[in-house]
Design a protein that fits this description.
By secondary structure, this protein is mainly alpha-helical.
Amino acid sequence: MGLVVGIIGRSGWLSIVGWTLSGPIAIGILAAFTLADTKRRSAPIYTSPGWTKLTYGVVIAISIIGIVVGALGFAFWVGRL
């Protein structure tokens, strides 16, 4: 969500919103996944699905890109003032 706002919004305020959203939303998604995965691992029988590592990496990559895009958009906006 923060990546989309950062790309669409070329103004400084939208870049700040995109940068702010990228971190907390990604942390929330990853925290929910980690909590659910930890509960499943504590079960007597656990098999890890193959898609979990890939999905975890993709979410982290997208969140980092969103944070960078928002920060750069804000920096370019401040640089033009």
